[in-house]
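User: structure tokens for this one?
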Amino acid sequence: MLQPSALIMVVVLTILFVPTVRSMSPELGPQAVAGSLVLVVMLMVSVFLHEVAHAFAARSRGMTVHELALTFWGGHTAYSDLRTTPGTAAFIAVVGPATNLVLAVLAWVGYLLQPDASNLALLFYVTAFANAAVAVFNLLPGLPLDGGQITESAVWAATGSRLSGTRVAAWTGRLLAVALAAAAIVVPTLRGQQVQLLIVVWAGLIGSFMWTAASGALAQSRARARIDALDPRRLAVPAVAVPVEAPVSQVREVARGAQLGGIQAQVVLVDHGQAVGFVDDAALAAVPDAVAAATPAWQVMVALAPGAVVDGSLRGPAFHAAAIEASRRSPVFVVVDSGRVVGLLRAADVARAVHLD
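Assistant:
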């Protein structure tokens, strides 16, 4: 998919390439702009093939590819990584730059085969240079670049912690972002050349994107680590089951005696073994003692939607997925283990456990 922001990148790169085209083919004159545009389109094709390589590699490892797009920042491929390993992640990352290196070699061979300095030779030359530059840049060892994902995978494999790998690669990416923005000013200054405002702005935008993306990857990895550690038995308020037709007086007795581990347990009402609601403590307290024995529990019940139940034996991503599904039916759901009610859990508490920051 070609996002509208990619057109802005085409315009900027076309302007940046014009001096190169004029220096290599001065005979083009005013047509240098058109020549520069052709080169940028070829570069976009190369970026697209780079992302296609990522997509095919992800699918070959059983991943589901959700999006493949060309954007203002280049390319973007989104895929599910629930079953990924360090080796799989590194493989998916490396095939993109590898594709650009192959394209660079093919274009360079095409350039060498040209008998003279023709426009076709220029096209091959710049295509080879651009693909080589894309490959080398993407192999820099910081997120969100492919090299950063390879670094993340290497540290992950060495330490057993994906979060540790992300931390190293994210901070490397942040340092690279600052270095890139600074280089646009420092390098020409040291060479005694004029600083190009357009290049400074472009480098600043790329650096800003890299910093933001690296920070986002770190936050996402922290959330992933929290998801891996999710345990419904720890998150849920302990619960005890009472028949829905039981009198309020019985519910009160159960509630008074239901202290598990120093925590007041929640009373869940069941009908034929199925949780149908939980007791509203304020409504329970409001029932006069004189009628408590004649008042059925369902009159102080907060009803639960059908299916608002999660399996208490689930852990990590499996539990997270089940909680998301249950939350679509109700903001509060029951935790059961071997068919027995063990807890009451709020979707907000699951979300809070994942997004602590």
